[in-house]
Amino acid sequence: MIRKFAAILLLAGIASIFMGLLFTYEPDAELNTTARYYAERTAADIGATNIVTAIVVTYRGLDTLGEVTVLFLTAAIVGLVLAHGRRRTSDKRRLAPVGELLATGSRFLAPLIILLGVYVFANGHLTPGGGFQGGAIIASGVLLILLADPCRCLSHRVIDTVESVSGLFYVGIAILGIVLAGGFLDSHLLPRGELGALFSAGAIPLIYALIGLKVGAEFSSILAHLSETEEL
Amino acid sequence: MSGLVLALTVLLAAAMIGAALVAVIGKSLPIAILSAGLVSLVASVLFLLLASPDVAMTEAAIGSGLTTFLFFFILGRMRGGEHD
């Protein structure tokens, strides 16, 4: 009873905060200074048609590096915690067979889902989406493979190598930016190119492809660890 | 925001609240997981209507896709322990 009362009280409190926000909300008539700077200068400065990507990869690139690091830590901790319950490859448990629909469907869909993920991060500077979204889509393709065949062991060596190599190249490109361009994670490392072309916007496509591979590998490693552990 | 879009937004918001209630109150775990995925799916459509396609893609891929799959994955592993 008292728990229910506390929950209702908490909900009412949150609701009152949101009501206050809602009733004092006034849409801005024009962009504020920072937003106007990004909206006006991105096409000329960075050469990306997707302003969000220009902000995420170049203007606020250090934040993105931090986010990737947080995700890496998560994957590492999941791996550390679940490493003890690793299933032996020899004694596979008897599992009920997955349905024909899932088995055939996953064989057909998983490559297409992974292709969509690659498309999303390769076009991150042109269309909505980017490395994080593409990586998550790739990981859902991997998850579909794992669901269809729970006994399949994904090669941890491949996943770890992709993850480390893309991370190293990401930081390497960032440091090259100090030497060859304006600063850490500056995307003017490569020529800006034509606005709207696939190979344009300097180093952004390269950086986003690396982020996509890294995020995809991190999520896949979390999923593979979860699927392989025995005591859950 | 035109009238039609506003009506659609209100409808989607109502559907989101309904799905969230089903997820919290419902007795069946698979239906609760599906409703939680539906909340994310509707949220991603709402983000799209609010003109933020990047956030909508993240929400659809992680909130609606990956987490729902993951919950089902775990549910399949802990069958029999549902009455905790």
Description of the structure:
- The complex is a heterodimer of chains A (232) and B (84).
- By secondary structure, chain A is mostly helical.
- Chain A has one domain.
- Chain A is 68% helix and 0% strand.
- Chain A contains eight helices and no strands.
- In chain A, helix 3 (51-59) packs across helix 4 and helix 5 (100-122) runs antiparallel to helix 8.
- The longest helix of chain A has 25 residues, at 156-180.
- Chain A starts with a helix and ends with a helix.
- In chain A, 32% of the residues are buried.
- Chain B is mostly helical.
- Chain B has one domain.
- Chain B has helices at 3-25, 29-49, 53-77.
- In chain B, helix 1 packs antiparallel against helix 2 and helix 2 (29-49) packs antiparallel against helix 3.
- The longest helix of chain B has 25 residues, at 53-77.
- Chain B starts with a helix and ends in a 7-residue tail after the last helix.
- The mean pLDDT of chain B is 84.
- Chain A binds chain B through residues 50, 52, 120, 128-130, 132-133, 136-137, 139-140, 143-144, 146-147, 219, 223, 226-227, 232, and chain B through 53-54, 56-58, 61-62, 65-66, 69-70, 72-74, 77-78.
Concise synopsis of the structure shown:
The complex is a heterodimer of chains A (232) and B (84). Chain A is mainly alpha-helical. Chain A is built from 8 helices and no strands.
Q: Helix content range of the residues of chain B, please?
A: over 70%
Approximately how much beta-strand content do the residues of chain A carry? under 5%
Oligomer: heterodimer
- What's the main sheet of chain B like? none
Q: Specify the overall morphology of chain A.
A: globular
What string, H for helix and E for strand, traces the elements of chain B in order? HHH
pLDDT < 50 stretches of chain B: none
Distance between the termini of chain B: 47 Å
Domain module count of chain B: 1
- Please estimate the helix content of chain A: 55-70%
> Would you tell me the structural class of the helices and strands of chain B?
mainly alpha
Largest sheet of chain A: none
The 3D shape of chain B can be described as: flat
Quantity of strands of chain B, as a count: 0
Largest two-chain interface: A-B, 21 and 16 residues
Order of helices and strands of chain A: HHHHHHHH
